[in-house]
Amino acid sequence: MSVAIQAPSPQSASLALSILQSKAGNRWGRAVEEMKTKRLHVSGDFPEFVVTNKSGTGYKVRLDPHGSGTCTCPDFQVRIAQEGRICKHIAAAAITALAPQVQLPSAGDGNGFVKPNGSQPGEASRGPGARDE
Length: 133
Description:
Layout: H1 10-24, H2 26-36, E1 40-45, E2 48-53, E3 58-64, E4 68-71, H3 74-83, H4 88-98
Antiparallel strand pairs: 1-2, 2-3, 3-4
Helix pairs in contact: 1-4, 2-4
């Protein structure tokens, strides 16, 4: 017998998205940019996804409806998880899975939420020393 896991309610999705965004730092903006330019592709259904990068490497991402996630990428495994942060792959999965459920404010509010079509009102800029994986 399998138990179906449903995507969180709009209120839970909004909270989870906010928490994940706060944990992402510059990786949120990187996920947005790489999704817009088709360098990251997300497939799967909540809570499990595969996020594939431009070179074809796929990483398994699992989202938690309470605002956390895990990823098999080296960035998350080696550095990010120890700091309580998330990688761009988790951010991309969250944007894809959770943002459509949230009643998104208008584009001019600057809260940083990203609409599924790739528009991003408050996109984070890449800081000095930012690197691509």
